[in-house]
Amino acid sequence: MLHVAIVGSGPAGYYTAEALLKKFGDAVRVDILDRLPTPFGLIRAGVAPDHQSIKAVSRRYEATSLADNVRFIGNIDVGGGVSVDELLGLYHAVVLATGAPLDRKLAVPGEDLPGVIGSAAFVGWYNGHPDHAHLDPPLDVEAAAIIGNGNVALDVARLIAKTPAELEGSDIVAHAADALAAATIRDIHIVGRRGPYQASFTPKELGEMGELERAHPIVWAQDLPPPEGDAALEPGLRKVVTLLRTFAGAGTASTKPVRVHFDFFAQPRSIEGDGKVERLVVERTRLDEDGRAHGTGETFAIDCGLVVACIGYRTNPIPGVPFDPGLGRFDNRDGRIAPGLYAVGWSRRGPSGTIGTNRPDGFAVADLIAADAPSGEREGRDGLDRLLAERDLYIVTFEDWRKIDAAEVARARATAPREKFVKVDDMLTHVRGG
Ligand code: NAP
What we know:
The protein is α/β, with parallel strands linked by helices. It is built from 15 helices and 19 strands. It has helices spanning about 10-25, 40-45, 50-55, 60-65, 85-90, 120-125, 150-160, 175-180, 205-210, 235-250, 345-350, 360-370, 380-390, 400-410, 425-430; strands at about 1-5, 30-35, 70-75, 95, 100-105, 115-120, 145, 185-190, 215-220, 260-265, 265-270, 280-285, 295-305, 305-310, 315, 325, 330, 335-340, 340-345. It has a 6-stranded mixed beta sheet with strand order 3-2-1-4-19-18, sandwiched between helices. The protein has a 6-stranded parallel beta sheet with strand order 6-14-7-8-10-9. It has a 3-stranded antiparallel beta sheet with strand order 11-12-13, with no helix packed on it. A hairpin with a 2-residue loop joins β18 and β19 (about 340-345). Bound molecules: NADP nicotinamide-adenine-dinucleotide phosphate. The site of NADP nicotinamide-adenine-dinucleotide phosphate has 25 residues, from α7.
């Protein structure tokens, strides 16, 4: 019997479990471990709450969890309660699928001022991640600057721009829905250090910015390159640029009270304010022929009381696991970290790609494990259970999670699919029948 532990129950973890089942059938036992009592990682805590169709992929992961030879074990901190070395002693293979939950730093003066928030924290806040539920971002301000030209920046801008009615049917947590309903932000600046041809938006997500009830996208025509260049673009980016041209063509005038400004060619240089954010200072950039941004020396300030940096993520290091601090992920070669130890998903590749991009990672690591042909007996889950009992660690099973799930669904607001528990203690109390 092949015993495999997967650390992390997000998409990368579940696609790995699925691939292992396909490859090894009844000859494998898979334990999926997660620090939280709840499974599905980024699906639950990262994907925007108003993108319920993307979140529906968790049903597929649920089917994997219910396979006889797969087990979900929540509320177990690998690197804390149990070490990676201990897992390597118990399982033939340990696959790290821990994602990239930490914010990359902007590295500009003023970054630590109150009101400057990373996207992991802001997204975690509106999605009810226990690490970020307490965030309390300043929303009683007139303007916000969202740094970055990727889909996370669009998610954050859209969530701030939407009306409560537009968030009906989402699973945004009540604390965030209430705070956003009371928000006074009228100008949202999406700040990109490069131009429209370099944006990482995808067409569907950008298109949503043109369909908001009370918000109007503003793009300056002079930021767009001559249209002759569009034909050579990759089709997705061409659609993005076409949308930006449509926004620019619609002009700046609108009866809608909220403006979403696309500020291209603006590199953040500092964040200023008296005890809290008051402005983001940016330097105008120009691109070289390879598309790299260079400062022109011209700076200007964007007045704002909130800055959300959506500039990418880093993996959380685990004691004893080789880590590449420059790249912000585990030090690995095509998924191999050390004998018996592998990485998949964002903790392997860095924070890029959609949910589905993780699927080939799962199949690739199943192939690596087969190629490495682990031999000898391992205790697998019996050994882990013994260790957990010795340490008196309280774990959450998939059946326990289903109780949390049912309770969240039962306590949902009228139009919402669920109201999440945002404190681990509340989840555990519920599991214990409290
Ligand atoms: P991303 O797509 O890599 O975008 C990061 C942005 O931050 C880029 O525009 C980058 O600019 C900018 N940036 C990085 N460092 C910067 C700095 N120091 N100063 C100013 N700007 C900086 O990352 P993301 O938006 O975090 O998304 C992560 C992944 O999740 C992406 O693959 C994304 O598509 C995916 N995602 C998908 C969805 C969806 O499908 N609905 C939703 C959310 C996220 P440069 O290009 O100049 O480096």
